[in-house]
Amino acid sequence: MLRNYFKIAWRNLVRNKTFSAINILGLALGMTSSLLIGLWIQDELSVGRQYPNAPYLYRVMEHEIADGRIVTDEDTPGILADELKRALPEVVYAAGFSGPEEHVLSVGDKVARQTGHFVGADWFRMYGMTLLAGSPETALKAPNNLAISQKLAESYFGDAQTALGKSVRLDNQTNYQVTAVFENLPNNAPDQYDFLLNWNVFLKREPWLNVWENSGPGTRLQLRSDADPAKVDTKLRTFLKGRNKDIEAKYNIQLFLQPETEAYLYSNFKNGQRDGGRIEYVRLFSVVAAFLLLIASINFMNLATARSFRRAKEVGVRKVVGAGRASLIRQFMGEALLISTLALGVAVLLAELSVPLFNQLTDKQLILPLNQPYVWVLLTGLLVVTGGLAGSYPALFLSSLQPVRVLKGTLRFGAGAQSFRRGLVVFQFALSMLMIVGTVVVYRQLDYIQTKNLGYDRDNLIQISTNSSSLSTRYLTFKDELLRMPGIQAVTYSQTSPLGNSNTSDGASWAGKDPRVAIQFNNTAVGYDYIKTMNIKLVQGRDFSTAFGTDSTNYLINEAAAKRIGYKDPVGQPLTFWSKPGKIIGVMKDFHFNSLHKAIRPLIVRLQNENYYGIVLVRTKPGQTKQALASLETLYKKMNPASPFTYMFVDSGYEKLYKSETVVGTLANVFAGLAIFIACLGLFGLAAFTAEQRTKEIGVRKVLGASIASIVTLLSKDFLKLVLTAIVLATPLAWYVAQQWLQNFEYRITIEWWMFGLAGLVAVVIALLTVSYQSIRAALMNPTKSLRAE
């Protein structure tokens, strides 16, 4: 019996080559998209779960409640980790974790700039990382200890074992001993680094972190396997009470735990509540994968039911000779599974070929692991779901036909079957319309981000880090010499990059300020010519100047700070920051010093006149970037022969801030295109079937004088009505989804009517072109051929 079913299914496939090809290609594209999206989702969900102790690892987060706001971040006191380990019996291990830092690591003549962190001594025991050399207990025990990655060990020493015990010079200043070599981190590890240093060295370098009142680095901990995280959370909320008495009167700080397995996906907080993050994109593309499979399956259902009259007599004969409805359902479901199996084979091949390109688009290192049993389980599930979804309605519909009516030739398909097919087409194009609108909105938002006036000129602006070079002590000499070289227009210093300033403090006071209220200001230190180099507009006052010796205690503020402080005429008014009294000498027009996801916050800028650790900003003359870079490199190597010359264009760095959104935009374009293509495949098949069914009608109309245009209109208008209905139904949902996505940005576009008009026009034009091909072909047919049988 099964062999007979297979023969019938195969003969139907071969006999109807066009429709079979449309079904297989549509399902294959839907499956390919779902496979690729599934690989991406699996990779996203795995971030933070790679560690052996992942279920017991947590990040300590901080709610800072003051000035009517709740600010949530990972900044904690530098001495918190040791205190948690001492005070809470539920904590097995705890370690501080500094922000990423670039340093120059040199071994003999091998010199390279690497990225690393300062971490607590428990780090390797917590995260269970594989050590190729050394032990977790002693890896970072002493101040001169250095742990490096396998990649660095091979680059500097040849292999891990040879590296152990060797000396590495950091920033051409201090020698460290390699005490551990850890396995290269996977691409989807939440923290990426090449080396790790002892935590106590960091606290010695940054003494302000040794008091409870200051926060900066992160804190990670591991709980006992039998510990209740909720109870630990309760203890943490009041953990700082009594430890930071100086600031308790001004604001409240509450600590809480965030599981390591959730930190990557749920990174956004709003008013103290978790507010999504990368998980939104995971959900979005999960829906997209389901949509694409659904659209492809609808093609199968539509074409199968449309061509059902061809199988009606077969069903009638089989029922007369004793076939039951259950056996007919099995037969037609078997045919659907056969087509799905062929489509799955094509999909696996396409996915394998597409993975490298998909990795480029998403900056991932995905593979299709066909050697893993779980993959075949997933593929089987995909086959059963798709085959079952695509074949269910045709099987139920065909098996319900009455043999008497079929064999008498009186079978007529009622309005219900036609309405169902039309409904499926509407549903298909509504989903496609939704994805097209999403693509338009994402594109417009990304274009808005890239072209928005940030309040400073990011073109022709270069930044160079001083943290791992002697520029931090020789900046003034570097600036003076650089200004005399070709291609250089202006030079300044900034403690923070214009691409991101997370430094906040409540250390500002002024006349009339309520001492009981803590108000957080972003702050940074800059050199002379900051306004000139950045091309920031001054609303009032002036920039720092060497002509005024008192500027070392004076301040620049932005408009948001002026508004928060409340001075009617702020220039010349007193302002004290970090117990240093001075005056406001200028008000800068608000400019973006963080991403557009965040609102512009009040900013205080002070003058730096020593210890220039941070960023040198260089503005090149228009059209002379090449000469400017040559000048920079020449002088840099002259003053820092032991440090490799590296730089970054600020506009390029700005684009990287929105890498996630750019990836989403690219994928949205690809999958929206696939959605409309798959939907049009089905439309193409239905149009071909309709033209075939109405061949004699078209012949009669042509004999009676109908024009080609009227026949094309006749055959096309019904399909266009369905597409227009889909557009009308999809528009409200598309608006809602787009509006929700835009809420992630503090600065965003306004959704306008033309976006829906453009998406609808695209859908109509593509549908019209798809249908018109078959309509024109039918209209051009010689009527004598179509009427010959009469």
Automatic annotation (TrEMBL):
Mind listing the UniProt keywords for this protein, alphabetically? Cell membrane, Membrane, Transmembrane, Transmembrane helix
What membrane topology term does the record carry?
Answer: Multi-pass membrane protein
Pfam families from the xrefs?
FtsX, MacB_PCD
Q: Which residues cross the membrane?
A: 21-41, 281-303, 336-355, 375-401, 422-443, 670-691, 719-738, 753-773
ABC3 transporter permease C-terminal domain location is 287-401, 669-783
- Identify the InterPro entries for this entry: ABC3_permease_C, MacB_PCD, Macrolide_Exporter_MacB
The MacB-like periplasmic core domain is annotated at 20-237, 436-630
Q: Where in the cell is it found?
A: Cell membrane
Any one GO molecular-function label of the UniProt entry: transmembrane transporter activity
Does the keyword Transmembrane helix belong to this entry?
A: yes
According to the UniProt record, one GO cellular component term is:
plasma membrane
Family designation: Belongs to the ABC-4 integral membrane protein family.
Q: By what name is this protein known? A: Macrolide export ATP-binding/permease protein macB
Q: What organism does the record attribute this protein to?
A: Fibrisoma limi BUZ 3
